[in-house]
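Purpose: get a first structural picture of the assembly so the mutagenesis plan has something to point at.
Setup: two entries, given in the order below. No constraints added.
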Amino acid sequence: MPFLCSTNCGKNAVLKRPKTGGALCKECFFWAFEEEIHCTIKSASLFSKGDYVAIAASGGKDSTVLAYIMKLLNDRYNYGLKLVLLSIDEGITGYRDDSLETVKRNEVQYGIPLKILSYDELYGWTMDRIVEKIGRKNNCTFCGVFRRQALDRGAELLKVDKIVTGHNADDIAETVIMNILRGDIARLQRCTSIQTSSEDKISRCKPFKYTYEKEIVMYAYFKKLDYFTTECIYSPNAYRGHARAYLKDLERIRPSAIIDVIHSGESLAIRDGIHLPAQTTCSRCGHVSSQEICKACVLLEGLNNGIPKLGIGKSSKVKEKLKVSKEKNGNCANCSCSKKEENGISSRLKDIEELLNIEVDINGSKSCRNINKVTRRIEDLSF
Amino acid sequence: MCSLNDFEMDGDSNKEMKKSNHKVLTESDLCRKCQINNAKFILRDKDFYCTQCFTVYFVHKFRSTIGKSREIKHGDKVLVAFSGGISSTCLLHLIRQGLDEPATKKLQFHPHVLFINESILNSQTSLAKIYEEIDKLNFPLSYTNLEEVLVEESKEISIKTVKSEKYLVEFQKYLHKFLWKLSENYSELLEVLRSSDLNKVDNISDESLGVSERSNELQHILSESLKNQTSREDFLRQLRYKLICRCAKQLGFQKVFLGCSGTELAIQILSNVALGRGSQIADFVQFKTNHFGVEVFLPMRETFEDEVKFFIESQNIFVPEEEEKLTPSNKPSIVSCTRAFIHNLQEEFFSTVPTVFRTGSKLVRGKEAENENEGLEGDVCSFCGLKRDTGKGGSSSALNSIKLSKKLTENQFMKGVIDNQDDFSDKENLIDDGESEVYNLFCYGCANLMQELDYQNSSSRVQHLLVTKKSEQQNLDIIQNYLLERGLNIP
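Result (structure tokens, whole complex):
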């Protein structure tokens, strides 16, 4: 027996909404889906009139639906936005090259211009070559860190005001769980906000924050949108997979679990007196970073100097290693230009200057430990 | 304190700590602490301990948790909730050992054990067995039935108290000495004492409290009203907290000990997040929390499951209830799913539990989640008694998105209305009516439960579980005679 659409429009329902359990017909589902995203955009005031907005496009279902919806809502509600598709080519053969074809088709279908940036031009490395070095484990660390920065670089290049990404409710819930498992409280606090908030940087926002992945798939399916479905060929080894599997189990048990996790994430704060890493800028590339040198630069340094594991593990150990490798190789760390750096007295003096800066930071009880460290370092550097 | 430094809990290194193969103890391995005895246990997959050194380490962890908090004062009366499970059994033994130490190291509080009989959930634990164990440990015991939680707030619930034989014998000896000096009618007094209530050990049986209609009602709520296992377990957990706190109040205790291990807390942290109770994490994992006006302490929070097991093994302690008694059935729930997830991950990455536990300890309720009218009665969830996290917050929130989705799925007329509205704020008002009443009374997690239960039906027993709030009308009634502007008679 066919079900009737629960909005009483008189038509037969074609699907059950995962989010609410209500049965809807095709038209009512389209309308509810679009209206919800419109409300999210409006209530969070994501855009202002005349904004130039880059849509991060991978060719997958989320970003394809995002591009479609952005264009649709922009026209329907007169947002007055100028849209552009921004794609990052990680250089994964058999995955990204195919998905980029989809994005190129979308460019034509939706009439939105496309810009592609590759890891190769930005960093001098493709993911294929990185995986060769690092192996199948941990390679997602590289890809994730690099892509994050690549998007920002691309946005700067295009001089856009905002970047929109296709992160859906499942992705955000998964990130909340990941950050709890990894003990990353700083990110736990940031990850549920609908848009990034540092002033001088181009802000990134997630209009699909409250949209279930299943509904996005249904929308794409019923609208017959052209998207690419293969999983990344390197991803099965990712730690994230554990969190993903767990979240899927939760959803099976209680469909509201995904939005419940997001609610939990939104209503959490960090206890007073807990030290959080302050967000600063990387001393090498000027990007936002919580460390003196940002993760991307550390990873690159490791790759370029033949110690690819450098950036994986404790960030405190990285500092030590960076110094050592610098002295050994003397290569320019930030790019692959392998320009020899001055390895003489001046660079050593610079090192000591850095150490003196550390000494100024010393306060109270920690002084003892740091002084030991400083003396040790000075001994290491002794002329 | 010292114990925490033993773990390497850096988040990023999690991935690197993947165990390739488990270490196995051999005959020749020595304890890493004393370097003399043969090791019997491996902790954290790398440290070998002999029984002696392990016990010292474990007991110290427990005592330092209590000690460093400075919350438990000399002579405090503490109600220790005992489930019969492994960690609360361990807690009782740790307390007993602490009380038996010589005066300088003796624990300085007076424990009293509370057992909640859950025979209604087909739990197999027999009260007699529990009594036997508590009696061996020489603690006074009170017990009650789970369904007593349905008794109206204004009435007393039935709690039976038994004092152990040993306790009585000691008490009598003390009295003997005292009375010997005081009274010549010593034998007469002794007779009075013997016949007194104190001396009588209740007839210990599972039926001693009687099967009441309440048990049927609780059965009904659990099997009929609540549709899925997750809600059932969540509901039961809230009931247990409620009942323990109520017993504590009735018996005159201000402080309660729960025997949750750090592993259990890690599971709770993650499942609270999954249940939408993220804002309440602090209320379930901090050493000291406040529930229904009673101080609840978690003295076992820094110990881990494997350590508790080692301790129980090495001391040959009998555990009355080996099985987890959370579920009346075997269907998967969010908590059981989380438990399996944490256990599996712990096998592979051994810092999982400590990391989750430490993350949870750093979290509190967010400011945005709190209601605007802070400090008012309306700020507290009517069911769990904790602060509500369903305040207005920002206009863009998960809560609002759910409300919107429900509206859009249910009402067609909305379509025309929204399409024609230019001013967005009016739309928001449209979203926010009727439906959201449940969010004005309950926290997010409890609202999920209450929507399944027919909480508004006044004939339903669930009503008794809700914290009664004085309605504005009732408040007006009280002061009515004094409100002049209402045109009332002035005598």
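Chain A has a mean pLDDT of 79.
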